[in-house]
Amino acid sequence: MKPCYQALLDAYKEIEEKENEERSYCVHYAKEAMKSAVRAYHNESKWFHREYVPTVEEYLSVALVTSDVTLFTIISFVGMGRMATKEVFDWVWNDPKIMKATSTIIRLMDDMASHEFEQQRGHAASSVECYMKQHGVSEQHAYQELNKQVENAWKDVNQGCLRPTAIPMHLLTRVLNFARAGDFMYGGGKDIFTNVGEVMNDNIASLFVHHVPI
Known about the structure:
This protein has one domain: Farnesyl Diphosphate Synthase (Orthogonal Bundle), CATH 1.10.600. Helices cover 74% and strands 0% of the residues. The protein is mainly α. Residues 1-156 form the Terpene synthase metal-binding domain.
């Protein structure tokens, strides 16, 4: 892990050197988001080794962080130039409704699509196991209730994009696209992020291999 951590710090240092003094603050937010994610992953690791199944509320307080929506949003904003002001980074860091909703969509859809495979290979409890234990219900019932939470989260995302906000729409679209990516990777109960198949390969090829027709 130390080489990975050092590589990340080196990357942030390079970005910091390329940014002018007016925007040097953005790398600070990226570093703090990374530290927050690492702490959350450490919590999940402790849960796994202790075979601890938290309540849904306790689980989400950690697992929404390990969805990495905040981390990736901040990193994507670093490259947005002057549009991404310090106020914008403060907005992300304060976890507004659209950010929390996007994290919820990705986390719960990921859990429902991958939890059976993860439990077979050994993994910390997901929201599915947490809900089943806390409420004493079947797996199918847990799916139904968690899907309702995903639907409600989508309403919050849509509301965040439609209502006037101090955050430029170009930046809000980044957040929206993370939610869309979650639906793409985990929709229909299939985890094509872990089990990469033809659909994911075609999409990656369209981004990095195939020429854009003009």
